[in-house]
Amino acid sequence: MTGGELVVEVTRGDLIESAHRVAACSVDAKGRVLNAAGVVDAPIYLRSAAKPFIAAAAIAAGADTAFGLDSREVAVMAASHAGEPMHVEAVLSILNKIGMSVADLQCGIHWPYDEASADALRRAGATPTVLHNNCSGKHAGILALCKIIGADTATYLSAENPAQRLILEFCARVSDDDAATWPLGVDGCGIPVYATSLRNAARSFARLATLDDVSDSDARALRVVRDAMVAHPVYVAGTGQFDTELMAAGAGSILSKGGAEGVHGVGAIAGGFGCVSKVLDGASRARGPSSIAMLRRLGALDDAQVHALGRFAHPKVYNRAGHAVGEIRAAI
């Protein structure tokens, strides 16, 4: 794969009907490239793949100890959760502990990603709240950071808010980048979103996995987040979600965090490396096949684990009648 291409093919019958190109980079904590596909030095927005580092910035400021946050609450701070009752309860618990309310969340409202949870709301004649937003845990964590440092909680979405400056500085530090020169956009939930290269992003995930080559205080914050994610993968994503199932299959050896527009970050704890990929056309359906293929190639997943992840490694294409008519697969 080094210097080559990673393509995810979508078949229908015997024909390749569509194809998605994927850029990817895997590095160790020192930044040595272990594997690469496509262009790895162009900036990309990490989107929600940055959430573990946003959570770690709050932990570095002492949010967990100041407010008595437990590991499930830390995990949901790093989550793109599915809006299940356990996720809503964890976010609400954070808000209660930091003395804030649902009204203080500015992430917007959408229906739960988890269909069972969405159906339960509809049957009850209820509508979703900001707590069901997949980013509500991250927002609660940022509010906790604001409370610790005395920043204005009403303007926590602003890139000029001291809490956001601390977050960007932390994220830049662990990825060997410069927050002052980063392209910044606005994420779907309203917070500043930064763009860095796949190479630098992979290094941040390698450091999250290994805790190497960072200061003691940063290592402590990364460890708290890493351990919470691995211990409670269902709080990071949701029942049956890709990140949840990948971490469960890794049995403590892998942490996983996806982002919008086909971004995916993985920290191989046992393997000692980080890997970040970007589906260039933003198609999320290519994320599972490409990430699993890379992890298998790098030895982070064995055949049994790949088999257990089969519905993500090579998901079927179904017609309206529910019959399998093709598949989505990585072609290396």
Specify Rg, calculated over alpha carbons. 19 Å
**Count, helices:** 14
- Our estimate of the beta-strand percent is 15-25%
Distance between the termini: 7 Å
Name the helix and strand elements from N-terminus to C-terminus, one letter apiece: EEEEHHHHHHHEEHHHHEEEHHHEE
Shape: globular
Structural class: alpha+beta
Q: Low-confidence segments, ≥5 residues, pLDDT <50?
A: none
Tell me roughly what share of residues is in helical segments: 40-55%
Mean pLDDT: 96
Largest sheet: 8 strands, antiparallel
CATH-level-2 architecture: 3-Layer(aba) Sandwich
How many structural domains in the coordinates?
Answer: 1
What is the number of beta strands?
A: 11
Task: Describe the fold and architecture.
There is one protein chain. Helix content is 41%, strand content 20%. It has 332 residues and is α+β, with helices and mostly antiparallel strands. The strands form 2 sheets. Strands 1, 2, 3, 7, 8, 9, 10 and 11 form an 8-stranded antiparallel sheet that branches. The mean pLDDT is 96.
